[in-house]
Amino acid sequence: MSQTNSSATGWRGLVADAHLALVFLTRLPLPESGPYQPGALARAMRLFPLAGAVIGLCGGAVFAAAALVLPPLLAALLALLTTLVLTGALHEDGLADTADGLGARGDRDHRLEVMRDSRSGAYGVLAIVFSIALRAAALAAAPSALAGLGACVAAAALSRAMIPAVMQILPPARTDGLGAGAGMPHAGIAASAGVLGCVIAAIGAGMAAPVAIIAAIAASAAMAWLARRWFGGFTGDILGATQQLAEIAILIALAGTWS
């Protein structure tokens, strides 16, 4: 995984951060951008919603095209498959590991150890199944191909804006986890990501954006509460689970406005 120079400023810094956000969150074949710089990923989190918008735009475009000739549910599943391939199921993997950790018996250390296991248990498998099923069913309720496209962009961008926010309110659960390796985003980065996510959500969801924003915040807050109670803080897996829960909540909330 390539990293970029966190000391870059201005437009150069924005481009570098956008590149790093895309490298970290997607499997796009992007060029290398130089050696690792401490704290670079933390700074790039301000543009996580932009990377999310790219992911959502790809999935939404597939939905819009497929909806012209296929039933809505099939179009929605193809859209989600596109995002899964594009991201390498990064956040779905985090959701599965978090579900296994929550379902495990034992103390905090044992739950964290269960999350490190690369094998998915029953809770993890069910979490992925329900994540895909709920998102597909909600997206299939879109009244038009354009509405579905906008929902995909809004949900993908806004859900990823929640990641640095959760990192602001929780401590790292491990000393060798994502917080130690990536650096901790400061409040300004979290705020920038939040504002950008809301702006993109407003563009994608239109008048329904406030409902989507409330749903994203509520889902992320619930995940943060569970993480603090059962794990003592966040891990990379918990951040992935946060994105998944927020995206599910956003799409369900939008589906409610379409009914």
From TrEMBL:
Chief place of localization: membrane
UniProt name for this protein: Adenosylcobinamide-GDP ribazoletransferase
EC number: 2.7.8.26
Function, in words: Joins adenosylcobinamide-GDP and alpha-ribazole to generate adenosylcobalamin (Ado-cobalamin). Also synthesizes adenosylcobalamin 5'-phosphate from adenosylcobinamide-GDP and alpha-ribazole 5'-phosphate.
Family (UniProt): Belongs to the CobS family.
Pfam family, one: CobS
Keyword Cytoplasm among record annotations: no
Cofactor requirement: Mg(2+)
Keyword vocabulary terms for this entry: Cell membrane, Cobalamin biosynthesis, Magnesium, Membrane, Transferase, Transmembrane, Transmembrane helix
Pathway the protein acts in: Cofactor biosynthesis; adenosylcobalamin biosynthesis; adenosylcobalamin from cob(II)yrinate a,c-diamide: step 7/7
Reaction catalysed by this enzyme: alpha-ribazole + adenosylcob(III)inamide-GDP = adenosylcob(III)alamin + GMP + H(+); alpha-ribazole 5'-phosphate + adenosylcob(III)inamide-GDP = adenosylcob(III)alamin 5'-phosphate + GMP + H(+)
The UniProt record lists the keyword Membrane: yes
EC main group: transferase
Highest rank taxon of the organism: Bacteria
Signal peptide extent: none
InterPro entries referenced in this protein's UniProt entry, alphabetically: CobS (IPR003805)
NCBIfam families cross-referenced by the UniProt entry: cobS (TIGR00317)
Transmembrane segments: 47-67, 73-90, 182-203, 209-226
Chain's gene name: cobS
GO molecular function: adenosylcobinamide-GDP ribazoletransferase activity
Database matches in HAMAP family: CobS
Membrane topology classification: Multi-pass membrane protein
Annotated compartments: Cell membrane
